[in-house]
Amino acid sequence: MHKVRIVQKLNLPPIERRLEAMKEAGFNTFLLKNRDMDMLTDSGVNAMSDKQQAAMLEADDSYAGSETFTKLENKIEEIFGKEYFLPTHQGRACENIISQAFVKQGSIVPMNYHFTTTKAHIVLNGGTVDEIFIDEALNLTSDNLFKGNMDLAKLKDIIETNGAEKIAFVRLEAGTNLIGGQPFALENMREVRKVCDEFGLMLILDASLLADNLYFIKEREESCKDMSIREITRAIADLSDIIYFSARKLGRARGGGICTNNKDIYMKMREYITLYEGFLTYGGMPVGVPVVTPSGGLGCHINSMEFVDHIPQNEYPAGALVAALYIVSGVRGMERGTLSEQRDENGNETLSHMELVRLAMPRRVFTLSQVKYAVDRIAWLYENRQLIGGLKFVEEPNVLRFFFRKINKFFRMGNRISSQVPGGFWRQSVIRS
Ligand SMILES: Cc1ncc(COP(=O)(O)O)c(C=O)c1O
User: Which atom of ligand 1 is nearest to the CA of 256?
Assistant: First the structure.
């Protein structure tokens, strides 16, 4: 339980301005200059507690030997039972260190599903990613409760076909970000561990979204119902050789970190910490809208392929929907589909498995009336979805293009949408909230 004590003013500009803003941003929600209802991400934007804020003031920012580092190191050991800890400035910094330390030219990294920055670092170091999700993982409306599970037969097959020496490590991502925040089961992780042991491979856990995954294990996995969250955490940690996390997500804080009990592994990664991160002890929806089910963590994931099924995948349905949603609501979401992929080496588009619009729910940030407002606008857009047209590139960066891309206007939507949206709605809803 908590109560709200500090608030931040939001703007909800009129629809005409939203349309202009979307055009200026090249129909890319990343490029909006934003102080609106922001459901782009929960990364680094969760509400911090009074104690967390106070701790930031008390933090010891000594250039070496910071007391705050020791406090954090002790906490990590208490929670994960890992002796060695390397602090980083965020999650992708961990991925950089881990990839530099363990990925070589030709390495393969099997994983339940990739995350954008993870894959970019592995590829940058000469490796490739092999996704071995279960078949159900891509079923958007499945009743499988653990769509983040790894397919054990595929894992074995990859190792046997390529030889264990080619496998840099096996990566398990908690709360799989790109497929709707879906969890893995503790039982599945135990089996993955057995395969890793059989072939002498490291198992690395991306714990950035572990909090959601823990909740789902406790709620959905029969054999874990009587375990506490701390006990489940420790069981998962004991199965991992390395745990890394973005603390912008895990812990609703800032920064990130890597921990392990293996001194050799730690020493290998530590070399890179000073180079990239600094010295070790520096202070530091229910109206029929198609969504991913069962619900995952992170936020709400709208299935754009179904929402705007008149837009072909090569016109980026999730990108089109997220831009349209901003215009009709002022709610900024994130495209998690083909635009978040890279083209292949021949410049061909890599169509993603899913076209999702992710509306993140940063913890403790929005009130229920704000969420209801977003739901109302999504429902309106769904009823009027034929207004939304596809997108095409006008400016396309080579790496992680979703951040800086610019896209041409909607083929269909143009200015018509502004006259079709009931203009007074948002004002009313602001008054209500
Ligand atoms: C699963 C996962 N891994 C890694 C990262 C990268 O973390 P950061 O944004 O702190 O660099 C994220 C961030 O969204 C994530 O969700």
Answer: 10
Q: Which CATH number fits domain 15-42+298-432: 3.40.190.10, 3.20.20.105, 3.30.70.2190, 3.90.1150.10?
A: 3.90.1150.10
Beta carbon of 244 within 6 Å of any ligand 1 atom: no
Q: For residue 329, give the amino acid letter.
A: S
112 lines ligand 1 (CB under 6 A): no
Q: Indicate which residue's Cα is closest to atom 16 of ligand 1.
A: 177
Q: What is the dihedral of CA 132, 134, 135, 136, to 10 degrees?
A: -140
Per-domain residue ranges for the chain?
15-42+298-432, 61-276
Examine the pLDDT at 332 and tell me if it is beyond 90.
Answer: yes
Please choose from 40, 92, 97 the residue to mutate so as to test ligand 1's pocket, defined by most ligand atoms within 8 A of CB: 92
The answer regarding whether domain 61-276 maps to CATH 3.30.390.80 reads no
CA of 288 to the centre of ligand 1 (A): 30
- Amino acid of residue 360: A
pTM for the whole thing?
A: 0.82
- The secondary element (H helix, E strand) that includes residue 74 is helix 67-80
**pLDDT tens digits, 196-213:** 999 999 999 999 999 999
Instruction: State the distance between the two ends of the chain, measured CA to CA, in whole angstroms.
Output: 21
Q: Is the CB of 206 under 6 A from ligand 1?
A: yes
- 267 has pLDDT over 90: yes
